[in-house]
Design brief:
Two copies of one chain form a homodimer. The first copy, chain A, is an all-alpha fold. In chain A, helix 9 packs antiparallel against helix 10. The first copy, chain A, has eleven helices and two strands; from the N terminus they run αααββαααααααα. Chain A is 69% helix and 2% strand. The model of chain A has no long low-confidence stretch (mean pLDDT 88). The interface between A and B is large, with 51 and 51 residues. Chain A binds a DNA duplex (30 and 30 nucleotides) through residues 9, 11-13, 37-39, 47-51, 53-54, 56, 67-75. Chains A, B: It comes from Kribbella alba. Chains A, B: Keywords: DNA-binding, Transcription, Transcription regulation. Chains A, B: Residues 10-80 form the HTH gntR-type domain. Chains A, B: Pfam families: FCD, GntR.
Chain lengths: 249, 249
DNA sequence: GCCCACTAACTGGTCGGACCAGTGGACTAG
DNA sequence: CTAGTCCACTGGTCCGACCAGTTAGTGGGC
């Protein structure tokens, strides 16, 4: 007997979405190009305009296209953006399926890996870039916490670029955004924020030193420890061992 | 002068989506509950059915609800699932600029981290589970490569579960799927596939031994080395240093 | 009394047509 | 050649309709 699979009805708009996404995956469609107008798609797909519109709404919600009223050139194919990925991660985090400790643990892994890679693959120019972001952090301490946080982001982005792995870059950026969105207010209201910033700067300087020396393990270890020290207080006590397991002994 | 922000028109269906998602975030709506029927929503939101449907399509594409034709109870609020997150990650991975070396490098990081966490957080039952998947791998060698690959997946999934970090689980699963999709045929056509499988099993056994001993670093190192040995030949030579940078010296 | 087949009132999926406000390109007047 | 007007066309929304399918309630047969 052949094995039969349960079949659920495939709706017309879904097949439109599939066709567009396939064209995108095959390269027949690339960012910047335009889709035909809705009324034109109606004739091409031989469906009603409602169906075309439902497909476009789904594509739009997935960050694939964008429609603008009155634009004679039609819906635009968007370049890939992390916004949809971030949206899903935020949703995951909001449903409490994703605990803060998981997010921070993931950041420790990603950041540590990026730094380890950076310490082996960096060029001298890139090292200089990283040191430049350290200077910016020091200057930002005297402004306010937001400025410091911004400079901190710039540092981590520079490191992620050097890692030459765009998956790391994206994951880092997304998770950082989610974490910040979850606890930014708590951190910025900390009484001893200046001390925190100074300590963080110190850690970052040590990381760069280790990168300069090419000691990837030390650099990654310091980075993970820094993240742990920075965030551990916001993590429920029973979850803290999950983070400590990522620290070197 | 006040700083003005560019405003873009908010479409009616977007406000419906927002209202539903807010209700969900506030807890006024929980998984398992039902939304009113489309025609009922038409009166509640005071919009047309097309608009309601576009909102429902977006919610459905985001994995928030599911509509079934004929169901008098109306669209169902779904429990959170990672499928939408996975979809976005697959989209990211499919963007052509993502090279095989980046994917494999990411796998080395993820798998290594999962194994390091597992070696510290595992219970005895979980260790037994992992050893069980090793037995399955050994048995699968005598069947065929697909069976072995399946058992291998089971092993890595077991490890990811023990890591207690669902982000790692999802990332691992997604990246593994993408990598396999890219080079599965090449691997399975290798002439010495039996030797490869035996070697892989040997490596996995060593990993489990290190996990049993609680030596997270050794376990992670072996795992990364295993992945490197397994996949490096498929990576263009100029990219190989990017992977070697992830191996311990 | 219970069980089963039937019916009817829904459901979502799709269609076609209509109107509106706005865009942008072409066309015209200067 | 420029500046202004105009109009074809865009997407956003609405309405009404039909269909196939599910489901719950009804009714009849046992």
């Amino acid at each position: 007997m052949p094995q039969f699979q349960p079949v659920q009805p495939v709706r017309a708009y879904e097949r439109i979405v599939e066709q567009v996404e396939e064209a995108l995956a095959r390269g027949d469609l690339s960012p910047g190009q335009r889709l035909p107008s809705e009324r034109e798609l109606v004739t091409q797909f031989a469906v009603s305009r409602s169906t075309v519109r439902e497909a476009l709404r789904v594509l739009e919600s997935n960050g694939v296209v964008r429609s603008r009223p009155g634009d004679p050139k039609g819906p635009e194919i968007l370049p890939y953006s992390q916004s949809a990925l971030r949206k899903q991660m935020v949703r995951l985090a909001r449903v409490d399926e994703l605990s803060l400790s998981e997010l921070i643990g993931f950041r420790m892994i990603m950041d540590g890996a990026a730094i380890q890679l950076a310490s082996r693959l960096r060029t001298d120019e890139q090292l200089a870039e990283m040191e430049q972001t350290l200077v910016a952090m020091r200057e930002a301490i005297d402004v306010d916490f937001d400025a410091f946080s911004e400079a901190d982001v710039a540092f981590h982005e520079a490191v992620a670029r050097v890692s030459r792995n765009s998956l790391i870059q994206v994951c880092n950026e997304v998770v950082r955004g989610v974490v910040l969105g979850l606890i930014a207010d708590k951190v910025s209201h900390a009484t001893n924020s200046r001390a925190l910033m100074l300590e963080s700067l110190q850690h970052h300087t040590e990381v760069v030193e280790a990168i300069r020396a090419g000691d990837g393990h030390a650099a990654a270890r310091i980075a993970r420890q820094n993240l742990y020290d920075y965030y551990a207080t916001y993590v429920p006590t029973p979850d803290q061992p999950h983070l400590q397991a990522l620290l070197d002994d």
